[in-house]
Specification:
With about 300 residues, the protein is mainly α. It contains 14 helices and 2 strands; from the N terminus they run ααααββαααααααααα. Strands 1-2 form a two-stranded antiparallel ribbon. The chain starts with a helix and ends with a helix.
């Protein structure tokens, strides 16, 4: 399998569906739609919604039932990036090679664009219930999984501790909390929600949750490494911000060699989590784990 082509294929599928639910409208509030579209169509990888679709496909052979969940997850992810970039947060000027949302539309509209995407995410995921009334309970459980991962017991909780940790004494438990919640939680939920909608059993969900936790942590540690040694053009954003802002990262706590070793350990653990699934059918997930562990952007 060519993982790059497979990711591009599913990214296109998701982009087509997102175009339908985030219109280029001429209503009075068109400015907020313009800002929402600016960020969500800024060239993101669509990793999280792709994971939702591919997991659903792994379990039941089709991804259609998980589409609304996948779109909602991408909106939640994009809203978090808009807010992360704000002066009160990370104060970044570039995202994916383009000026950040608040640099183009102002802080007020950027905040509203993030709020708009967050609310539309839940509208979209709930719309999936009306389209699949037979799977009502599955969809509710999937939305609950996403909601928790994005909230104060997940991404927002991780962000809060991350913000408060600038210039703090480095603590291993605190760093683990930040990584597990700020980044890994939504990646894990992307996988688990797709599995739930597809009707996965408890054992399958448990193994897939383990896979999600491993690649989520791997993704964040690789992010920390790329912030120090990555190419700004490839990344589409400024590097060195973690060090400039005195952020608590895996790299600052354990150093480069241990960080690389941890990525390798997590990659092996992710592969082990897939052992219960058919080797051919789970090939995408194995190749994706390798891709995320050693990505350049």
């Amino acid at each position: 399998m060519d993982i790059i082509n497979e990711l591009a294929k599913y990214k296109k599928i998701i982009d087509i569906e997102l175009e339908k639910v985030i219109p280029n409208t001429d209503l009075f509030q068109k400015k907020v739609f313009e800002a929402m579209r600016y960020s969500i169509f800024a060239g993101g990888k669509r990793l999280r919604p792709i994971l939702t679709l591919k997991t659903c496909e792994l379990i039941c052979g089709s991804y259609e039932e998980a589409m609304n969940i996948a779109m909602g997850i991408e909106m939640i992810h994009t809203y978090s990036l808009i807010h992360d970039d704000l002066p009160a947060m990370d104060n970044d000027d570039f995202r994916r090679g383009k000026p950040t949302n608040h640099r183009v539309f102002g802080e007020d509209i950027a905040i509203l664009a993030g709020d708009g995407l967050l609310n539309l995410a839940y509208e979209t995921m709930l719309e999936g219930i009306s389209l699949n009334k037979i799977g009502l309970e599955k969809h509710i459980l999937a939305i609950k999984e996403v909601s928790r991962s994005a909230g104060v017991f997940g991404m927002i909780g991780g962000q809060t501790v991350d913000i408060q940790s600038k210039d703090d004494v480095i603590e291993e438990k605190k760093l683990a909390f930040i990584h597990q919640n700020k980044t890994s939680a939504l990646i894990e939920a992307s996988i688990v929600s797709g599995a739930i909608v597809a009707g996965a059993n408890h054992e399958q969900i448990s193994f897939l949750r383990g896979y999600g936790q491993s690649i989520g942590l791997c993704f964040q540690i690789r992010d920390d490494i790329l912030d120090r040694i990555g190419d700004e053009k490839a990344l589409g954003k400024n590097t060195g911000s973690d060090e400039t802002n005195n952020k608590l990262t895996y790299l600052s706590l354990y150093g480069m060699e241990n960080s690389v070793n941890e990525i390798q350990r997590l990659n092996i653990k992710a592969m082990e989590s897939l052992s219960t699934f058919d080797e051919k059918e789970s090939m995408f997930f194995k190749e994706l784990a390798d891709y995320l562990a050693y990505r350049k952007s």
